[in-house]
Amino acid sequence: SLERNDDVMVLSLQGRLDVVASDKVRDEIVRLLENKPCIISLAGCDYVSSSGLRALLMIAKAAKGRGIRLIFAAACAEVVDVFEMTGFLRLLECVPTIAAAEAQLR
Length: 106
Prior knowledge:
Layout (H helix, E strand, L loop, with lengths): L1 E3 L4 E9 L4 H11 L5 E11 L1 H16 L4 E4 L3 H10 L1 H4 L2 E2 L2 H8 L1
Helix pairs in contact: 1-2
């Protein structure tokens, strides 16, 4: 889902970010990126595969290339564990809640 206001765009992912969904999710989010900060909520995402990790990295790279600040928020414990094991917490800006992401963007 997508929410927009004057200051920030919030995208919410749902379900599994796996080989079946990752390319479509990546393409759609990159298409939706605007010239305003973006929060991607992972609260509804219960699984991220290696192809999903690649998609998130490519989304972050596209945002950076456009000068857009991007924060990933509200990932479940299992997804945070995957981010930790793969070193993605050093590559992606991640916070525990959408409210924390909004506070960082103020």
